[in-house]
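During the reporting period the student researcher (J.K.) took over the structure-prediction task from the postdoctoral fellow and processed the backlog of single-chain submissions. One of the processed entries is reproduced below for the supervisory committee.
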Amino acid sequence: MTKLPLTIATTDYDHFRDFRSGAVTAEGIDVNWLTLGHHECFARFTANREFDLSELSFAKFSTQVTREGSDVIGLPVICSRLFRFSSFYVNRKSGICSVSDLKGKRVGSPEWAHSAAVYMRGWMHNDMGVKLIDVHWVQAGANAPGREEKVELNLPEGVTLTRVPDKSLSEMLASGELDCAIIARPPTCFLDGHPDVVRLFPDFLEMEEDYYDRTKVWPIMHIIAAKRSVFEAHPWAARNLYNAFVESKRRSVERLLDPAVSRYPLPWLATYARRMRDRFGGDTFPYGIEENRATWEQMALYTFQQGIAHRQFTPEEIFPKGIMTKVII
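J.K. obtained the following structure tokens:
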């Protein structure tokens, strides 16, 4: 029988490695896998739908999946997930010592629909009393000028967002033009040891562990998005793909937990991985709907509040119907 040819574009993740290499296969599917930088995946899938499936920012996916008559749908497969209290960088001359000190300040992010910033703005707005309208928001490239939004926005009334096309967040943070930046990766000014640029939360690890223990939210940055037409024409393909992603991830975690076969030359990595497995209830990196319900629902709320999603979605409606059907043997 002729297999269904599909092109998938993602970054080089170990938990996708065995699927990408062919050691794991999706029944009935012939995969053409493109390994690209995630910004290239985002831009090309968002602008032109160049791939059948693509890694995509969860925030940007939220915009596209909630459009009327949307042509995209997701798989409950997580490419990247990270806690983000480490992502606040401040200029110490701004006198910011706590999140409440951000009221009235200039705070930048690479894009408004930037998943790391969405989570942290949502936390500020809903949990910490620093409302979206309390901050002067700035959008600019992280370490180089010129970055632009990739999806349409419908900013809430009263929110101030200024785009700066000719400077980077890093240079504005170092000069004091910005008081704070929320960036997924450390800005170059911080990495270069600029004396005025520090993390707002140096104890971020403890904060993140406490946050997870209280909320069971483990922020999802990127997921697998797909052309809706693929699964409309071939409903069976969604679950077969999901099964392959799950098996590939299982093998990756198995390697991580076994110091004899780990690909990473770090001492005690397997010991730390086992601790994380136990902390997360036996699965170090869960896929699926119910396993991540608190996180799907939180992003649905935050993206709607922030004018990124067109409406507040439910987890079940952004994935193929029946994707999580149980198979009991």
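The committee noted the following: The first strand starts at residue 4 and ends at 10.
J.K. will present the remaining backlog at the next meeting.
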